[in-house]
TrEMBL record:
Claim: DNA repair is one of the keywords in the record: no
One GO cellular component term noted in the UniProt record for this chain: membrane
Location of this chain's protein in the cell: Membrane
Record has Phosphoprotein as a keyword: no
Record organism: hydrothermal vent metagenome
The organism's taxonomic lineage, starting at the top: unclassified sequences, metagenomes, ecological metagenomes
Identification of the protein by name: G-protein coupled receptors family 1 profile domain-containing protein
Annotated keywords: Membrane, Transmembrane, Transmembrane helix
InterPro entries, A to Z: GPCR_Rhodpsn_7TM
Length: 129
């Protein structure tokens, strides 16, 4: 099942279409429902981590601009993934406290969507390590 999903996700039109959809949903939902600029930045950074995925088996370079794609991005993916999950949890807590379904429900769903796509995109890289 995972192999089929990976093959489907690595087709260019699906991958970039999903990224574009996530970016548009990020801007629309966060400004319309939450009006939280830090959440917008977090979701956009999560989307960038999907776009700048490092290919499995890439050698680590410690010189030049390649250090960003081979060292910095894989480390930031783990951190952003945890922060997205924490933001989804906090949005759920705030939803229960304020009884405001529309404001935090979309933020939670969008966070979990980006987490799911990040995991699917980055599993091959971390399996290759």
């Amino acid at each position: 099942m995972l192999e089929i999903l990976e093959k489907f996700m690595h087709q260019p039109f699906v991958r970039y279409g999903l990224v574009l959809l996530i970016i548009l949903l990020t801007i629309k939902v966060t400004y319309r429902y939450t009006k939280k600029p830090l959440r917008v930045v977090l979701l956009l950074v999560g989307t960038l981590m999907i776009v700048f995925r490092t290919a499995p088996g890439t050698e680590v370079n410690i010189e030049g601009f390649a250090i960003v794609s081979t060292l910095l991005v894989p480390v930031l993916v783990i951190l952003i993934l945890m922060v997205l999950l924490l933001d989804a949890l906090m949005a759920k807590v705030m939803q229960e406290e304020t009884q405001d379904l529309s404001r935090y429900q979309y933020a939670t769903k969008l966070n979990l969507l980006i987490v799911f796509v990040m995991i699917v995109e980055w599993i091959p890289y971390f399996n290759a390590i």
